[in-house]
Every structure is written in C-alpha cells, then in structure tokens.
Amino acid sequence: MPLSEMIEYEQAGPEVRAVYDDIMATRGTDWINNFWKVLANHPPTLRRTWESVKEVMAPGELDPLTKELLYVAVSVTNGCSYCISSHTASARARGMTEGMLGELVAIVGMANETNRLAEAYQVEVDERFRGPPAG
Amino acid sequence: MPLSEMIEYEQAGPEVRAVYDDIMATRGTDWINNFWKVLANHPPTLRRTWESVKEVMAPGELDPLTKELLYVAVSVTNGCSYCISSHTASARARGMTEGMLGELVAIVGMANETNRLAEAYQVEVDERFRGPPAG
Amino acid sequence: MPLSEMIEYEQAGPEVRAVYDDIMATRGTDWINNFWKVLANHPPTLRRTWESVKEVMAPGELDPLTKELLYVAVSVTNGCSYCISSHTASARARGMTEGMLGELVAIVGMANETNRLAEAYQVEVDERFRGPPAG
Amino acid sequence: MPLSEMIEYEQAGPEVRAVYDDIMATRGTDWINNFWKVLANHPPTLRRTWESVKEVMAPGELDPLTKELLYVAVSVTNGCSYCISSHTASARARGMTEGMLGELVAIVGMANETNRLAEAYQVEVDERFRGPPAG
Amino acid sequence: MPLSEMIEYEQAGPEVRAVYDDIMATRGTDWINNFWKVLANHPPTLRRTWESVKEVMAPGELDPLTKELLYVAVSVTNGCSYCISSHTASARARGMTEGMLGELVAIVGMANETNRLAEAYQVEVDERFRGPPAG
Amino acid sequence: MPLSEMIEYEQAGPEVRAVYDDIMATRGTDWINNFWKVLANHPPTLRRTWESVKEVMAPGELDPLTKELLYVAVSVTNGCSYCISSHTASARARGMTEGMLGELVAIVGMANETNRLAEAYQVEVDERFRGPPAG
Hints:
mainly alpha; AhpD-like
C-alpha cells in the first residue's frame, strides 16, 4: 500500500493536470501509471521529475531502447521492483526481446560480481585507464 | 594499495598463464590489466571470472558497445572506481563518444533518483506492468 | 512472512519483557511494533538495539523531528519498506507535514542522483572542502 | 583523477557560463566547485542538475540546514566521498556544529544497522503503519 | 509475480533439463526451486550461474556452513528477500542454529553501521593495515 | 583526509581515555586504530560503538574467525575500503589463510550476482522456504 494517496486526474488541480496531460501527449497514451499519481502529492516534484525524465529519455546520441535498457540495469542493481516492472515494460514496447533481457540481466549480474571483486582486492587503476582521453 | 599482491606473467604458474594468454588473445593485446593480476591470487576465481566475463560480453542480441554501456551504468551505481575507469575505457574503444557518456551518466543519475522516489512512496506495480508478457 | 516467529509479551521471558516494558514506558504507548517482536528471538540483539536507538534518537543538538527525518532519508536510500513505514509514522507523530515529506523525498532523490554523477566522473574533492574545519 | 576534463569559466561556452554565473549569484560566491566543472562536459546535464538542485534546496517547509543534513545522510549511506565533503562544508556554513555532525553520523549508522535487521527478519509492516494517514 | 515465466521440467528443452538434473543430483533432492526455473528463460545464464554457484559453494578451505552464512550476510546487506529465504533455509539444513542466526544478523547490522561511520568521517587506512601481508 | 580531527590519547578527555584503555586491554595491544580516533570527536558514539562491537564480536555460537569473515563480506559488499582493510587484518590475525580469503571473495562476488538475478526476475519465494522453521 503506497505511503501517500494516489491522485486521480479528476481530483487533481490544474498544475498536476497539466503534467498528466503532457505525459499522455508525449507517450501517446490515455492513462497515467501509479508512479506519477503518487508523486502528485508534491506537485513541484511531479513537474520537475517528469520534465527531467522527458529530457533525459528523449532520443539523443543513444537511442530510446538503449536508454530503457540502462534504466532497467540501474533499477535491478538497486532492487527497485516498481522501476524494474515499469521500465521492462517500456523496453519491451521499444523492441527488447526476451533474449536481450536475458543478456542484460546476465551483464548486470556479472558487473555486480566484478564490482565487488575489484573492491575486495582494492585494485589500483591502471595508468592507461586514468583520466580523460587525450584530446 | 591492493589487498593482495599482483601476479605478473613471469611469476605466474601454468594455470594463471593460460588465462592470461587467453585474455590477451581474445582482446588482441599484449598486456593484462591489474584486475586480473590481483584475481590471480586465487586461480579458480581468476579462471571462472574470466570465462564468465568472456561469455557474457561476447556479441549476442546486444552489441558489444551496448554491453559496455550497461557495465558502466552498474559500476557507477555501485560507485566502483576501478570498474568505472576500465569499462569506460572499453566503451570508448568500442565507439562511445563523449556525448554518449554524458547521456549515459544522466540516465544513471535519473534512475537512481526515481528508484528512490518509487521506494519512498512504496508505489504499487500497475496491473499492466505485472508478470511476463502475454505469450 | 517473517523469517523467525514474533515473540508476544505473554510468551516472553523476563529479559525480553524488561525491554518491552522500557519501550512502552519511553514511548508512552501500550503496544510493541513487529520489529522488536522479531528481534526478541535474540534477546541480546533486542536489548542492545533498543538501548542504542533510545540513546541515538533522544533529544540532543538535533531535535526529535529532524532525527526522524534523517532516519527516513537513510531508509528510503536503502529501500527498506518496513523502516520507511515505521519512521514515517514516527515523523508524522512528531509534526512532519505532507509538504515536509514531499521536500524530504525530493532531496533524497536528488542526493541519490548527484552522488552517482560525482562517482561517474570521479570528481576530485576541492581544496576548500578538505579535512576538518580550521580550529 | 576525474574521468573527463574540468571546464574552467574561461574555456566555457555561453550555455555553461550562464549556469556558472547563476551558481555564483545564487550562492553569493566567486568560485565554482569541481562538481559543476566536470558536469560542464555535458551542458544539458549541467543545466538541468543545477536547476533541480537549486529548486530542491531552496527554503521551503524544511529549512536550509535541515536540507543539507539530509543530503549528508544520503551521501554517507552511499559512501560518496565528494558529496560528503561538499555537503558537510555547506552544512557547517549553515550552522551545523560538530555536535550536530556527531549526532547525524550516529543516526545514519543506526539506521543502516536497523534497516538490515528489518530486512534480515523480513518483518511485516504493522497494520497501524500502513498506507497514507487518515484524511 | 515474476517478470518472466517459470520453466517446469516438463516444458524444458534438453539444455535446461541437463542443468535441472545436475542440480537435483548434486543436492540429492527431487525438486528445483523457483530461482532456477526463472533463470531457465535464458539457458546460457542458467548453466553458467549453476556451474559457478556449484564451484564456489563446494567444500574448500571454508566449510559449507560458513559459506552459507556468508551468502546470507551479503543477501541481507543487499535486502534480497528471495536470497535471504533460500540461503537461510540452506544454512539451517547445514546446521545453523537460531542462536547462530541471531549472531549473524547482529554482525551484519553492526558492519553496516560501522561501514557508514568510517565513510562519514573518511577515516584513513592505518599504515599497519595497508597492502598484502609480508610474505 | 578525515572529515574531523583524530584525537590522540594525550589530547583525550577521561571519557575517551576510558574507551581507549578498554580497547587496548580487550585486544591486548598498545595502539588505537584510526577509526576510534575519529569517532572520539563524538564521545557517546565512540563509547556506544565500541561496546556494541565488543559484545557482537565476542565468541558465541559463532567463533571469532567466522565473525570476522562475515564482517569482511559485508564491508566488501558496501565497498568500504577502511573496513575491508581493518577486518581483513583482524581475520588474518585469527587464522584466515590466503586461500580462505580467495573463497570468501568468490562467495561475496557470486552472492552479489545472484541477488541481482533474483531481483531482476522478481522470483517468488518457494513455499518451502517461507517463514520460521517448524518448531
């Protein structure tokens, strides 16, 4: 059960409705998922978070599918069930196959393993890996 | 300073040398980075970890660059400096531009933020996001 | 379902009852929440944890509400649902408004984001921020 | 050594300079700390992050010192050295005493401990702690 | 509800069945727990993970009970409910008493606390603790 | 550089000296490691932390070496360099061989990997693993 109520469109004030409208227009859908309905308890956080997510996930040098895969990888590492579920759904909608999901999960698992091996032995960064690339 | 000595090729026994040889052959390089030299203190871990990483990072349904980007995303989330440095170097070698790095870091930051927003409010997973995709 | 049984007051031995009595007396309530009932499976951990929490959360240079807000911030970062629920309840009982909760959650989200931005780029600590303050 | 170059004011383009100017004006200082100089490698992330931090950390129902304390609590939990150093400096500038720092650190330690005790025993949330407060 | 279907023995192809057979033979049981049934969606991950776990958890210089205790300690730190439940069951089967579980949980809690105290104050490693032991 | 000064025995007040004396007497040594010298900035935290660590790490149903191994496992998972260094030194002093360290690190790595695999697929806990053991 969520910590705060979910704000439905009908109950929402104009600031929240404007964000909901933009979410639906941007995504071409007619529904709002629970994450935004709970954030709506604090309208400035709803607005700022949506604007940031919209900007960060827009197509850029990385394509939208790759961006969703990265979102899933972080969410798995943090063990956030809601975020795993919602971003896996988005990734599937953008073309992620079950085979790609399998490879993604395998990499996340390995990275979490080798991160701890490197921490355990306190491996020093090789000279060649240090600093920004030569300009 | 690492917790255990680094094992150089010259000091290494045959089991470790075989792994070092395979690392250099697979990568087409003539050097071994510090991570493997420290793992060589426990040869079964060196061998198993290398074989796993080699299998997981081989081209599949995800291309090698995407795989490196995912590795960096996890390593940043865990704050593993060594892994950030080494996998950023690999990603650059596979074509990651500075613009792509900027977008990757932005996504990792946002995902870490929204993961906590979802946890804080204990958002329930929407019915549409639940379970495996319809077969 | 918890990993170990919950020990009710009636079943409890004198060492556990003494802690339960002190919890209720300190808080001015007549019930014990589930956290303590499960810790009671290991009486030394029950006693030590309660004494530590009682000492740490007592009024000091920081007021009790600020202390609860800090507890919530850590619990959200770690994704501990039980702790988020119980310490949010305590914070509300000490005067946390829904607006304060919204600001708290926003800060926790931003800090989790910028922590990863700083880790990703391995930013060096500015000279001015280093070490203890000048005496 | 940072992963990307630090962009000094003199080298910066107009988009980055505008953010630097706003940081200095908002803070009433004449210098920029390293975090922003590295983020400047990706101007959209610099701008968005600064605007978000500025909004989130502005005085609200929580006062600026409490906000900095929360930032430090999260940064300690995540082990981000840069963020601990910079936000501890900010908190001291807003009036955090060494005694307050001691209490803050003690709470962060205890919360990290009890979060794991609750996870270990998989304690169920008490009925009284569930859901939003009665309206 | 899991993110992908669980693959039962009857539905499984020969590669998956071979792993299931080895799991049951190695453990001397006639059932497969849910973890492996979900991993079976990506047979290479199923095979590689099982072979790695089998190798790592086999008796060595550390006995099987100690190995299970370590697994539980990590799983509690990461807050992974499934892993806590399954490895606690394995540890009990190998002789872990409730008293040992209580001590284990107490240590995990304390380590999570002191880890943050050390990070908060950015304690420098004592000269005596640095590097590999003198040969 | 630590965030607060280190308090040497000579500078310390009687409350801190009493703890330092007890640390040296309990351990049979004549020196204090940096962790305690920094905690001494907040004497109640120094005292409470030392008393808790002393109680938790004392011989019980788990032997002192096993307890140190568990401490190292948590510290590696959290990436706390100071704690890895100090508790590895303690474990070596209690008989941990380099082979045992290798096995420990391998388990910590695997557990961090499989924790994420279980989270990724949101595996449901098997009926047989649920709840406390039958009494």
